[in-house]
Amino acid sequence: MSDIDIRVTGRAGRITLNRPDALNAATWAMITAVEEALDRWRDDDAVALVVIDAAGDRAFCAGGDIADLYETGRAGDFAYGQRFWADEYRLNNKIFSYPKPVVSFLQGFTMGGGVGLGCHGSHRVVGESSRIAMPECGIGLVPDVGGTLMLALAPGRLGEYLGLTAARMAAADAIYAGFADVFVPQERWPELIAALERDGDVAAVETAATGVAPGALQGLQEQIDACFAGEALGDILTDLRGTDSDFARDTLKAMGRNSPLSMACTVEMLHRLRGPSLSMERALELEYRFTARAMEHGDFLEGIRAAIIDKDRAPKWQYADADVPLTAVAKMLQPLKTQLTLEGKRMARIGFIGLGNMGAPMAQNLAAAGHTVVGFDVAGTTAKGAEMAESAQAAVTGADIVITMLPNGQILRDVAADILPKMAAGATLIDCSTVDVDSARSVAADATARGIGFVDAPVSGGIGGAAGGTLTFMAGGTAKDFATASPLFEIMGQKAVHCGEAGAGQAAKICNNMILGATMIATCEAFALADKLGLDRQKMFDVASTSSGYSWSMNAYCPAPGVGPQSPADNDYTPGFAAELMLKDLGLSQQAAEAVDADTPMGARALELYRQFVEDEDGKGRDFSAMLPRFVARGRG
User: Fold this and answer.
1) SS3 content of the chain, % helix, strand, coil (to 5)
2) Residue 596: how many CB atoms within 10 A of its CB?
3) In terms of DSSP H, where are the helices of 169-259?
4) Phi-psi category of 346—alpha, beta or left, where left has phi over 0 and alpha has psi -120 to 50?
5) Which of 45, 133, 343, 533 has its CA 20 to 30 A from that of 145?
6) What is the dihedral of CA 262, 265, 270, 275, to 10 degrees?
């Protein structure tokens, strides 16, 4: 008996999963067979719709068959799993975007890989026995097969709750969360399927649907939103531990079974996905970044060992104390050398001007994603995977997109004057430099006059963010040009915010960095004062990082060595963001403030202190957080 039954019955393409004794767990061969069937039926006029169901009462599909993944991973063959996930995700994307109706009948357990098969079609039917969940964090993975798309779209912070707890959804909950569409009593499923086969009319699904009483999740929404609003796993755990309720205690117990690394990455993935860049392609690409590394660098093999092989239910997770460094999350989610390729994905020709400490890794990530990158830098520097041109004009000739990463506004103006005449009408120039607002707007006007799109998109995240693909882009330009640039932002970074018309990105960057410069100074002053008062630095961090002293400078980039997440302070202040770059940005903020008559006394004082630190002291070539030893030394003097 075959593991899957594929046939055409009447007007319907029929797919029946047929491994009831294994809860219809999907094998690689089953995934391949489903994809081949969908490809055949796509342009077959005799097939009006596709019906996917499963044999047995216990499960539609309880996940992927992971035995081979475990064995190959234990043997050091990580490529096997990468190929499996790539094929599975390609199928998930095909189901999601299929041009004909896809109707799935989800009885019993629908989990993990079963969600990818059953929850991306156009009409998802649930019944009395339906139980849908994303339990991947329990085996050292993250919600995948496109599941992060649905989690990101779920109401409020329900996505975080479902992804981190593996909570099982009955029919009403699945409809509420967006994993299913309609409830039809299971005794009526054979009749409904027969009608779909006979008439090929998907309207029969809505006709058969009946109402269902609200489930538990809707009543828990307020508590879920309150406890899962944090920016990182640690914030969520802090909120749950500080909440005296049965809900919080039960939730902490459920999360305590799961891989902390997987949960931390799940939170980060959902936060990156929410917003205008949300798409199935983006979700699958992020998932693949994790799963491609899951065997070698994650907890997947240990999770399978504890749950399936030894069945001791005692996995030895990384970061068992749930204190997951931001660097560990960034490592699991950074772009891959070989990106996931989905059907219909268009690769661009990109000219990249300025291959310095920031530009080179950004260009490398674009090339690794499959784009053709042609680079140029006056210093002769290169980027791995990029072709090198002899001039800026040569680099941009024939390019769909041109990206610049340059030192200042005047150089941007000069480069734009050189390359814009060589760019084709309809191409787009994306400037990722940090420059003055007037220069950005001047170049935007010149580009527009030539029929060329323009986006000013300065970045935040430093050299580490450029290398790891975790930058934040602050973008200015038209909505159309921002949409053109967004797929590239998704490769090079974790977030892109459309701030307004041309120049708005630069305005946001200099305002943001004025805050950063001032708060870093305040943070360094506080640690220096704590030293003088005899307060232990770790105790100082423990208080400030969880109370009103919370800030990015304190919590994510702590200037005190050995305290908080790893930062440049732990590497003798080797620059992640150099003090002279902070000086430049503060200078731009004060230049802009003067131009519009804005009162910024803290920004002005921060500029003065960084100018003294860089030009008169030992700050040049050091990280901007090296203000701490500066204040400590001056205090002792």
Assistant:
1) 50, 15, 35
2) 8
3) 171-177, 189-199, 203-208, 216-227, 233-241, 246-255
4) beta
5) 45
6) -170
Q: What are phi and psi of 47, to 5 degrees?
A: -100, 110
The pair of structure tokens assigned to 96 is 């999601």
pLDDT tens figures, 141-188: 999 999 999 999 999 999 999 999 999 999 999 999 999 999 999 999
Give the separation between CA 595 and CA 314, rounded to whole angstroms.
Answer: 62
CATH 3.40.50.720 assigned to 349-502: yes
Q: How far apart are CA 393 and CA 416, in angstroms?
A: 10
Exposure string of 362-380, with b = 16+ CB inside 10 Å and e = fewer, is: bbbbbbbbbbbbbbbbeee
| Percentage above 70 pLDDT, the chain | 99
| CATH 2.10.77.10 for the 4-333 domain, yes or no | no
Interatomic CA distance for residues 396 and 381, integer angstroms: 17
Angle formed by the axes of helices 78-97 and 28-42, nearest 10°: 30
pLDDT at 65: 79
Fold of 509-636: N-(1-d-carboxylethyl)-l-norvaline Dehydrogenase; domain 2 (1.10.1040)
Task: Give the pLDDT confidence of 48-104 residue by residue, as tens digits.
Answer: 999 999 999 999 999 987 888 888 999 998 988 999 999 999 999 999 999 999 999
- Domain limits, the chain: 4-333, 349-502, 509-636
Q: Which residues, 6 or more positions from 147, have their beta carbon under 8 angstroms from its beta carbon?
A: 112, 115, 116, 119, 134, 136, 163, 287
The pTM of the full predicted model, rounded to 2 decimals, is 0.77
Q: Report whether pLDDT(635) > 80.
A: no
* Longest CA pairwise span in the chain (Å): 90
Residues recognised as catalytic = 509
Q: Hunting for tokens 């997440």 — which residue is that? A: 565
